[in-house]
Structures are given as structure tokens and as C-alpha cells.
Amino acid sequence: MKKIEYVLPSEIEKRSFEIIERELLEQGIKIPDEQKPVTMRVIHTSADFEYAETMCYSANAIEIAKKLIASGADIVTDTNMAKAGINKKALEKFGGQVHCFMADDDVAAEAKARSVTRATISMERASRLGKPVIFALGNAPTAMISLYEMMEKKEFVPPFVIGVPVGFVNVVAAKELFLHSNVPYIINKGRKGGSNIAAAICNALLYELGVRS
Amino acid sequence: MKKIEYVLPSEIEKRSFEIIERELLEQGIKIPDEQKPVTMRVIHTSADFEYAETMCYSANAIEIAKKLIASGADIVTDTNMAKAGINKKALEKFGGQVHCFMADDDVAAEAKARSVTRATISMERASRLGKPVIFALGNAPTAMISLYEMMEKKEFVPPFVIGVPVGFVNVVAAKELFLHSNVPYIINKGRKGGSNIAAAICNALLYELGVRS
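ok -> C-alpha cells follow
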């Protein structure tokens, strides 16, 4: 077998972040200090340095998101994959839970009955949780659009939106809506994103609060 | 609200693939026909055209993987996130199941007792499932290395490896091991990959077999 240096799993992440930091420096990319843990974890999860140029943060986004989590906010995702990737034990320490309503049978039934998308029903359910919610949307532009429509109708204002759907149809436009809103956000401009990116952002915020598991 | 054209969720995927196909053509990238459904779904899930240049397939890889699935093979992942992303209902139609042993309490206990990684224990458990297994590894280079070590010791030969871990430490080297082996594989060379990519490859294979849910 070709010699591969054995690196403890616990050591791999540390070394990875050192490599990311060095390569950002070599590429002359400067990320504001408070955004670094989030953007770097996104690069860590994708090995894609393009995120260093496209991640957008509203004013004091990190601070606002951390305060929400610390005060027990829930997280609502638009895929079970993002839900699976979020460190739920860490969130539970602050009293928060992760929800994904998209694959629930009764959501599908209601969507069909009302001729709307499952994303629309899921966002409506999230708005009725009765506590602050961070939306972590890594898949469905329709979820972001539904959320925006609720704001337009003054039915609901999301406390925080992590907007990183991925794709080729309506994704760029859905993100633009929020870039020009007053909602606190972390958004990746352009086509890229994904459930893994949404989860990575949530975990970076949790780890910034000093919890790992 | 800025006008966003409403596109049915069912229509979004079709349109996305048309856009991907057109842009590959514009960029002069030619993907062999049999590999197209897999590589294009990877691009669809990441919005990253770099995969068109780095995805590697052993001879007849797609055919071999499809035959394994059709004959009831299980899929073993190295994250619960990849497991969450795979269309399990589609796999069940052929008699297969998706497993991820990484987060099991007894796996952690055995890894600790034997001073090895959880990935090593997980791969050992997968090797004892008593039926053909497709390994879909999107996270841990240690899982790929453990699997390779079992081959070297002639303890086990994996029937098929989807090798797409992501990252900066040992990832490139772990993939290289299999690129030079006799095991049938789909591997993304280089640093990129992820749980989402592993799941997308599995789903592309399932959908090529004509099942969607």
C-alpha cells in the first residue's frame, strides 16, 4: 500500500482549517474576522474556494444568529439531508430543535389539496412554531420564495435566513429577494449552495458558541 | 415583489438538466453517454461544472453498479447525511437497504476499545453484511483507507466503491489508492466531493434503473 500518513480524525479538521487559511492568504482573499469561522467551514465542507467570494452577510449577521441560537431558537431546514448534517445535540444544549417538514405525509397531502408546493406548506408550519426560528434553506428556491411572499403579505417575518439553495432555476433570483430585504441573513450569491452548505453554516455558528456535541 | 417565474417543482429538474447539458456543450466538454446521467446529477446537486472534468469511472462502472443494485445490493455510507439523501424507497424496490454505522453507539465503543477509527469499525461491519454492498463514501478518507487495507490483507473485496470524500487531508491520496485498484469505482479525483455528491451518484444510478420513489 502506498504510504499514507495516519492522521487522527480529531486532528484532520484542525489541519484542514490551517490549509484553508494558508490558501486564502496565498490567493490574497481577505475575509472579515467575524465571518471567517462560517465561510471557512463552508470551504471545508465543499473544498470550493469560490465560496470565499460569494458568501454574503447582512450587518452583524453572525452576532444576531448566535444570539438567536443561544436563546433557544429552532432551526427549520428544507431537506432531511440538511437536518441530518446539523449537530442536533449541540443545538439542544441551548433548547433548540431542528425541524424539516418537507417529507411529512400530511404536508404532501395539504400541498396537493391546496395546489401549492410542499415548500410553501413547510414554511407556513415553521411560521407557526411559536418561537424564534432560523431558516436553513439549502435546496428549494420555492421555500425562499414562499417565505418572502409571507413577508410581503405581512403574515410573518423570519428572524434569520440562511439562504443557500443550489441550482439552475430560480435559485439566483430567490436569493436576490433576501439580499434586498431587511431580514438578517447569510446567503451564498449565485447558483452554488446545498444541504451540506446549510448544515455547515449552522454547525459553524454552534461551534462559535463553544459547543461541539 | 420582483417577478419570479413560477416553475413547478417537477419541472425544475428537467429544465436544470437542459441548462447543464447546454452549458457543457458551450464549454466544449464531452461526457461519454453512459456517464452522463451520473456526472450531470453531480453537477445538478453542486452547481459545480468542475466535476465534469474530475469524475472518474472504471471500465463499465455504470453497468456494474446498476446490476448490483438491480440484484438487491445494499448501500453503505459514511455519514447519516448521505444516507438521508439517498432515495431509500427506490432502493427498497430492488431489495436493497442503506446503512450507516458511523454514529452507532456500539461502533464508537468498539473503536475506542481497539484504538481504531469509527470508520474502520464501520467498514468491518459493512464487510460482514453477508450480501453485495456498494460503498458510498462522501466524507471520511479513513473509511476508504480502511477498506483498502482490508483488500490488502485479503479479508474483503468491496464489490463497488463510490469514492467521493471531500477535504484537505489524505482525501486525494485515499482516492488514488482505488484509482489504481481492480475494484469497480466511481471516484471524483481531487479534493472535492461530499455526502451530497455520494447521495446524488446513488440516486442517479437508481433513476437510470427507472425508479423514482
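The radius of gyration of chain A is 18 Å.
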